[in-house]
């Protein structure tokens, strides 16, 4: 079994889309091993997205991700990383495939409702950022 981090971003929480996203996670066969709602401080958002620090969108990304509550999930399933990324869709919702969460729910390039780890090593780091080992089963 493979694990990945999923985030339901502040825009989705604010739009009342958590239930839709959680239902899709269950429908796709993921096992939720941990889940919590929290609000990132600017400093925490900067630390989480440090890989984008030199990119022109970094400041607006940090501001967005610290603008309201989000939901962090530790998902588990065979081929979880690839599968979750296919369910999410392309970062740009206008380029995302029909039926993906971003195509369905996103309103802008940056406000794209969900996040998912892109590789096993990233997943381990991102899971550890949000969850201690005692918080998941």
SSE diagram, text form:
Layout: E1 2-8, H1 10-15, H2 18-27, E2 31-38, H3 42-48, H4 58-65, E3 70-77, H5 80-88, H6 101-105, E4 114-116, H7 120-130
Antiparallel strand pairs: 1-3, 1-4, 2-3
Helix pairs in contact: 3-4
Rg value: 14 Å
> Largest sheet, order of strands side by side?
2-3-1-4
Query: Please, what is the average pLDDT?
Result: 95
State the helical fraction: 40-55%
Number of strands: 4
Order of helices and strands: EHHEHHEHHEH
The poorly predicted ranges are: none
Main sheet makeup? 4 strands, antiparallel
* Number of separate helices: 7
Distance between the termini: 13 Å
Structural class: alpha+beta
In short:
This protein is α+β, with helices and mostly antiparallel strands and 137 residues long. It has helices at residues 10-15, 18-27, 42-48, 58-65, 80-88, 101-105, 120-130, and strands at residues 2-8, 31-38, 70-77, 114-116. The longest helix has 11 residues, at 120-130.
Write up what this structure looks like.
By secondary structure, this protein is an alpha+beta fold. 41% of the residues lie in helices and 19% in strands. It has 7 helices and 4 strands; from the N terminus they run E-H-H-E-H-H-E-H-H-E-H. It has helices at residues 10-15, 18-27, 42-48, 58-65, 80-88, 101-105, 120-130, and strands at 2-8, 31-38, 70-77, 114-116. Strands 2-3-1-4 form a 4-stranded antiparallel beta sheet. Helix 3 (42-48) packs across helix 4 (58-65). The model has no long low-confidence stretch (mean pLDDT 95).
């Amino acid at each position: 079994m493979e694990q990945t981090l999923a985030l339901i971003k502040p825009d989705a929480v604010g739009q009342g889309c958590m239930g839709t996203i959680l239902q899709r996670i269950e429908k796709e066969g993921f096992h939720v091993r941990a889940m919590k709602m929290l609000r990132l401080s600017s400093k925490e958002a900067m630390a989480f997205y440090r890989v984008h620090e030199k990119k022109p969108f970094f400041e607006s990304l940090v501001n967005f991700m610290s603008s309201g509550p989000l939901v962090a999930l530790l998902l588990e399933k065979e081929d979880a990383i690839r599968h979750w990324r296919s369910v999410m869709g392309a970062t740009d919702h206008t380029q995302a495939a029909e039926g993906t969460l971003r195509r369905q729910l996103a309103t802008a390039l940056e406000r794209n409702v969900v996040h998912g780890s892109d590789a096993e090593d990233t997943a381990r780091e991102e899971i550890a950022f949000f969850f201690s080992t005692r918080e998941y089963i």
